[in-house]
Design a protein that fits this description.
Layout: E1 9-17, E2 24-28, E3 39-40, E4 43-45, H1 52-64, E5 67-80, E6 85-97, E7 108-111, H2 129-132, E8 137-140, H3 147-160, E9 166-169, H4 176-193, E10 196-200, H5 201-207, E11 218-220, H6 222-227, E12 235-240, H7 243-251, E13 256-260, H8 276-284, E14 290-293, H9 301-306, E15 311-314
Parallel strand pairs: 1-6, 8-9, 8-15, 9-10, 10-11, 11-12, 12-13, 13-14, 14-15
Antiparallel strand pairs: 1-4, 2-3, 2-7, 5-6
Helix pairs in contact: 3-4
Bound molecules: 8-OXO-guanosine-5'-triphosphate.
8-OXO-guanosine-5'-triphosphate binds near residues 35, 44 and 45.
Protein name: 8-oxo-dGTP diphosphatase
EC number: 3.6.1.55
Keywords: DNA damage, DNA repair, DNA replication, Hydrolase, Magnesium, Metal-binding, Mutator protein
Length: about 325
């Protein structure tokens, strides 16, 4: 076995290139490189005089003869290999020119993001796939503002959407029968449409006396995340308001975090909102996918993707328009 007495630390630009059908471009590492024969996203080392995006554009041109035209940062992750400590800067690329050709004698293919059909996949990349492939839209329930209006909005929204989304059941003001009625409607709708339901941890505290078991993964409030509660239950993600909480979300192996509010919103009157630049700053160091929340609607998804958001979470805007 080769030994590497001095391990370099390298920054790597990693391009997740999407085609119009939602598949992504995979490359197979050629002979002569560490982990030859392993599948990876195209990319390579960031040179000292380059930004990550410049490195990504250069690598895609050199390896596959395509020109990346538009994309945005996703998140960063570090991995300790025998040959190097790598910091992977994942970017989505959603617009490019040209059709891929093998310029470095490597195999490549278009395949789904979760890519169960490709093997082996690089050890740092494989565990990321369920996180990358998770839904990019999260709709929050709001039955407490009126059962019928929320039920209709969710039903309309779900009938218009063709891709998987998350539905977070979050009802702080409901209790007793009203809470059960809202839960049963939301749960039934998720079952019927096959969409993934999440249960807000505050809401679970009010609901648990009525249920035999946790019906779906928890979405933790920041307070529950910080207090370390619910370690024994399945937790998918958490709401966070600062970078310390993002670190804790990563340490707790959560699948995502939700950070906001990005724009002013009626639920937080008088607060200006983080804005996209501050969102980007925080999301970049997160090491897990981060949803943006706060005054956002479906038309904000491009801005969100340009500023490091995995996707957007919507309260009252989901199902409108
Ligand atoms: N491109 C890419 N690299 C990855 C991924 N996952 C992952 O761990 N890496 C690691 O990131 C590093 C990329 O370095 P590389 O050797 O491919 O870079 P390069 O194309 O600049 O190579 P070169 O040394 O021939 O100039 C490798 O250690 C590789 O194992 C991935 O999904 N895509």
């Amino acid at each position: 076995m080769t030994t590497y007495p001095i391990k370099p630390r390298i920054d790597v630009a990693v391009a997740v290139v999407f085609n119009a059908g939602g598949q992504v471009l995979w490359g197979c590492r050629p002979e002569g490189k560490p982990y030859a024969g392993y599948w990876e996203f195209p990319g390579g080392k960031v040179e000292p005089d380059e930004t990550v995006w410049q490195a990504l554009v250069r690598e895609l041109k050199e390896e596959l003869d395509i020109t990346a035209l538009e994309g945005g940062p996703w998140f960063r992750i570090e991995h300790d290999y025998e040959h190097a400590n790598v910091r992977l800067h994942l970017y989505r690329v959603w617009r490019f020119e040209g059709s891929p050709k093998s310029l470095e004698n490597q195999r490549f293919t278009w395949a789904s993001l979760d890519s169960s059909d490709l093997s082996p996949i690089l050890p740092a990349t494989e565990p990321l796939l369920p996180k990358l492939a998770q839904p990019t839209v999260m709709a929050l329930s709001n039955y407490e503002a009126g059962f019928e209006a929320c039920a209709q909005r969710l039903e309309r929204g779900l009938s218009n959407i063709k891709t998987p989304i998350y539905i977070q059941f979050r009802e702080k003001a409901l209790s007793g029968n009203a809470l059960i009625q809202a839960f049963e409607h939301c749960y039934g709708l998720c079952q019927k449409t096959g969409q993934a339901m999440l249960l807000n941890s505050d809401t679970w505290l009010n609901l648990r006396e009525h249920l035999d078991a946790l019906p779906c993964p928890l979405h933790l409030t920041q307070a529950h995340l910080l207090s370390g509660q619910f370690q024994d239950l399945q937790c998918a993600g958490a709401s966070v308001h600062d970078t310390d909480s993002l670190r804790i979300a990563f340490d707790r192996s959560l699948t995502y975090a939700v950070l906001g509010a990005v724009k002013p919103t009626p639920s937080h009157p008088g607060q200006p909102g983080l804005g996209w630049e501050k969102f980007l700053e925080s999301a970049q160091g997160a090491r897990l996918p981060v949803f943006a929340i706060g005054g956002l609607a479906a038309e904000d998804i491009r801005d969100a993707h340009l500023h490091g958001a995995h996707g957007i979470a919507m309260l009252s805007q989901f199902g409108l328009g």
